[in-house]
Design a protein that fits this description.
The complex is a heterodimer of chains A (111) and B (237). With 111 residues, chain A is mainly beta. Chain A has helices at residues 2-10, 106-110; strands spanning 12-14, 20-26, 29-31, 34-38, 43-49, 55-59, 64-68, 72-78, 84-90, 98-104. Chain A has a six-stranded mixed beta sheet. A four-stranded mixed beta sheet of chain A has the order 3-2-5-8. In chain A, a hairpin with a 4-residue loop joins strand 6 (55-59) and strand 7. Chain B has one helix spanning 3-21, and strands spanning 43-54, 57-69, 74-84, 90-102, 112-122, 128-140, 143-155, 162-173, 180-188, 191-203, 209-219, 226-236. Chain B has a twelve-stranded antiparallel barrel with strand order 1-2-3-4-5-6-7-8-9-10-11-12. In chain B, a hairpin with a 2-residue loop joins strand 1 (43-54) and strand 2 (57-69). The longest helix of chain B has 19 residues, at 3-21. Chain B is globular, with a radius of gyration of 17 Å. Chain B starts with a helix and ends with a strand. The chains are: A mainly beta (111), B mainly beta (237). The interface between A and B is medium-sized, with 18 and 18 residues.
Chain lengths: 111, 237
């Protein structure tokens, strides 16, 4: 579990040309825990909850709250965001299920 | 949802807002600005308190509600509404059943949309009120603009059968979870009011959270005193 957390903490994924990013929720951890997205664009976060229990994605920074049903992919639309960091967490496992969206200038996020 | 449909809904809200500017009726307009979002599994207890001070005196109203999500995008809430009458007796005045429907995924389109349906019955008199409303929210960075437009039908043997409209708007700056300053506008029933508000929330463990709202609204379309102070507490679990 700690390996997964460390893996999630230090791995980042960048938004593809379609501006979609997939995050896996497993063992109450968001993997990757850091995602880079282009600033100024709308982005789809696809969250694949592989756990047996529901989770609730919560982010005041992103102004989003969404229930992530178990064994289901949920889509959260975010942005357009200004350049910066936007933290999110799982309400049911706030100590482990944590992550951050980093909005970067388009060229930085999509390279 | 196509841009064309969204523009049509926005025009509908604007039209109902314009109509409500000149509408006459009998109730209290200052209440709460509704957001077009529903969370599955959400259950809540709610308490609202309103004090309206005019040259004629003070009107006090409170409502207690219990709500729960019955589907992924639909929540229902039942209320008991109490009011203080002219003899200073505070008593049960009405009951209300409300349903809120989140029509689109938040953030997917240019704006977020929802609908509100309400049915209210006065406790001691044959007076009913049915409401259909359009809920709108647009996020612009850390600012959220929320607008509600309601068409209201009143009927009963002890009330004049009539149509009314109401418009509510809230411009909120999401400064911090516990402190989100806002400006609110309420119009309808021969009332146009504007004033500051503050919204906040405190999160407990799990899905439990306490939301609060406080607002002070001054009537601006007539001379004379007409101020409303509102409080709302919502505990989600």
């Amino acid at each position: 579990m700690y390996f997964c957390m460390l893996f999630g903490m230090f791995t980042s994924v960048k938004a593809a040309a379609t501006d979609s990013v997939t995050i896996v929720l497993k063992n109450h951890l968001f993997i990757p825990a850091q995602v880079d997205v282009p600033a100024g664009k709308k982005v789809r976060l696809i969250i694949d909850n592989q756990d047996e229990t529901a989770e609730e994605f919560d982010s005041f920074d992103l102004n989003r709250e969404k229930v992530l049903f178990p064994k289901r992919k949920s889509i959260i639309y975010i942005g357009p965001l200004s350049v910066g960091e936007y933290r999110f967490f799982g309400e049911f496992s706030p100590n482990t299920a944590q992550g951050v969206v980093i909005a970067k200038e388009s060229t930085d996020a999509t390279q | 949802m196509t841009n064309k449909l969204q523009i049509q809904l926005l025009l509908l809200i604007t039209l109902l807002g314009a109509i409500s500017w000149g509408c006459r009726a009998d109730g209290m307009v200052v209440d709460k600005v509704y957001h077009p979002y529903v969370l599955p599994f959400e259950r809540e207890v709610e308490w609202r308190w309103l004090s309206r001070q005019t040259d004629e005196g003070n009107v006090l109203a409170q409502r207690a509600g219990l709500g729960w999500a019955i589907a992924e995008t639909v929540t229902v809430e039942g209320y008991m509404i109490g009011e203080r009458d002219q003899l200073d007796n505070f008593d049960l005045a009405a009951y209300e059943l409300e349903a809120r429907w989140q029509m689109v995924e938040q953030g997917r389109y240019w704006a977020d949309w929802g609908m509100l349906f309400e049915l209210e019955k006065q406790h001691k008199t044959s007076a009913y009120e049915a409401t259909v409303g359009v809920l709108f929210e647009k996020e612009i960075g850390k600012v959220s603009l929320t607008m509600n437009a309601f068409a209201v039908r009143e009927w009963g043997s002890e009330i004049k059968n009539e149509w009314e409209s109401e418009f509510r708007a809230q411009l909120r700056y999401r400064f911090a979870p516990a402190f989100q300053p806002a400006i609110e506008i309420y119009s309808g029933e021969d009332f146009v009011g504007i004033g500051p508000a503050v919204i906040g929330l405190y999160r407990f463990e799990g899905q439990r959270q306490l939301k609060w709202e406080a607002g002070f609204v001054s009537e601006i379309s007539h001379s004379g005193k007409d101020h409303s102070f509102r409080l709302a507490l919502e505990f989600e679990f």
